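Hi L., both proteins are below.
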Amino acid sequence: MSRKLFLLVFAGSILGAGAGAWSAAAPEKRIAVTIDASEIGAPISPYIYGQFIEHIGDLINRSLWAEMLDDRKFYYEITSQPAQRKPVRGRVANQWRPIGPDESVVMDRQNPYTGDQTPLIRLAGAEPRGIQQSGLALRKGKIYDGRVVLAGEPGAKVNVTLVWGPAAADRQTIPITSLRAAYAKFPLKFTAGGDANDGRIEITGTGRGSFRIGAVSLMPADNIKGFRSDTTGLLRQLRSGMYRFPGGNFLSAHEWREAIGDPDKRPPRWDPVWSAVQPNDVGVDEFMTLMGLLGVDPFISVNSGFGDAWSAAQLVEYANGAATTPMGRLRAANGHPQPYNIKWWG
C-alpha cells in the first residue's frame, strides 16, 4: 500500500508540474465547435450491447424463471432438523419439512421419479402426513398455477394446500383423486386470499398405505412461458443485441442433456462451482424461448471443462439440425420442430 501511495503522489507531482509549465508557456486560445445534428454516422452494431447469463446459484432460477419452490424435485433429504446450508448470493433456500413424525417421510432411492431420491409418505389413518415448504411471498388476489406429480396406493387421499395466514380460513385446498401406482401429473390453481411474506404449501395425505411425490411446481399465473413478467419486461427495455448462455464457471460442470425434455424429469444436480443445487429447469430450449420474448440473438457456449467435443457437437445438432437428424429429432420430440439456427457459438 505504501508503494502504491508513493507512486500516486509522485505521478501527481509530475502532472502538477507539467500543468503549471504549460499554463505559463501557452497563450490562451478560443476554440469554436460546430455540431451538425443533420449528419448521420455509421450505425453502431447492436452486438456491442450484450448480456451474459449464468446459473450462479439461483440467479436464473429466481431472478428470471418464475418458479417459487426450492428443491422442487427433492435433492435434499426431508427432515425436521435445521438444514446446515450456506447462503448462496445472500439467500438460504427454503427447506421441505415433514408434516407428522420424521419417520413418516422416507426417501426412496430404489425407484426415484427423477434424480437420486423421491419422498415416500407413510400414512396413518386420519392423521395428516406429508411435507411442507414455507417462505413463500403471496399477494392477495393473485393467482398461482402449478402441478404436482404423484403416485400412490388406492387407500391414499391427498390434499395440496396453499396457506397465507394463521386462521383456518387463510388457506385453499385442492383434493387429489384417482391416485394410481404409476406417476401422474395433477394441475394446481390457487388464488391467495391475503398478503403473506411467509406463506407455505402443504402436500398431505390421509387414509391407508402410502404415496410418493415425484415433483411439484408453483408459479405466479402471470408468468410468460415460465419466465417472470416483471424482470422479462425490464430486460426487454435494455434492447441488447445478444445474450450469452449458460456460463461462465458454471458451464464447466453443466451437462446440457440433463436440462432438456420434461422439466419434471430433469434430475436436480449439485453445482460444484457455486455450491448450489440446480434444478435444470432452464436449459437451451427455455433460453431460446427467452430470446424470442426479448428479441435478442443467442450466443451459446459449450462445455470445455468436463465436457467433450462429441457432446458439444450434439448440442450444435440439437439446436440447428433438421428434424431428420438424431438430435434434431430429439428437439422436435421435445416440442421444438424447427431448428433454432443459432449463429453465435463459443
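That was the first. Here is the second:
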Amino acid sequence: HTRFKCDWSSDVCSSDLFLSATKRALDVVGSLVLLLVLSPVLLLLALAVKATSRGPALFRQTRIGLGMKPFTMLKFRSMAQGAADSSHRDYVSWFISSSGKATTSGGAKVFKMTNDSRITPVGRFIRRTSLDELPQLWNVLVGDMSLVGPRPPLQYEVDQYQPWHRRRLMDVKPGITGLWQVAGRSRTTFDEMVRLD
C-alpha cells in the first residue's frame, strides 16, 4: 500500500484520502443504483429460494473484514437449512495448506467442492451464475464491503493463514468481486489468489 503526497496549485493533498473517498463514493452510488435496478430480480430470487426449500431466503454469516474486524455478510441461501460446514472446512484446510496443488498421480484423490449434496437445485443455479452474491450490495452500501476487493474469509480460514496472507485484510475492504474472480477463480492456487487480491 503505497503512500505519497501530491501538490496541486501549491496545496498539498493526500492521495490516499482522496482515493479512499472516491472509492467509497463509487461504492455507495454503485450499490444503491444496483439495489434499485435489481430489486425485482432480488425479490424473484428470494421467492424462488423460499418456495423450493425450507428456511430463510437470506443466509447470514460472520466474515472477517478490513482490519480483521468481523461483520455479517449476506447471501441468498443456496444450501439446505442447517447443513453442516465440515466439508467446506476440510476443503479450505486442504486448499490453504497445499496452496491448491493436489496430487493426481497413482489415483490419489483430488479434493474439489463439486456435486455438493447440501446445495439445493435453485442454490446450484444461483451459485453457478453468482446471483447468490447480490445481497452483498447491502454490505457495500452500509460500508462493510466494497464492490471490488478480496473476498472476505471466515475466521477458521484466517486461523490457517501465514502472516503475509493477512496483509490483504489490513489494507483494503473485502469486495463482491476482484481480480482473482475474473482472472483465476478455481484455476489458481491459494498463494496466487492472495497475490491477485
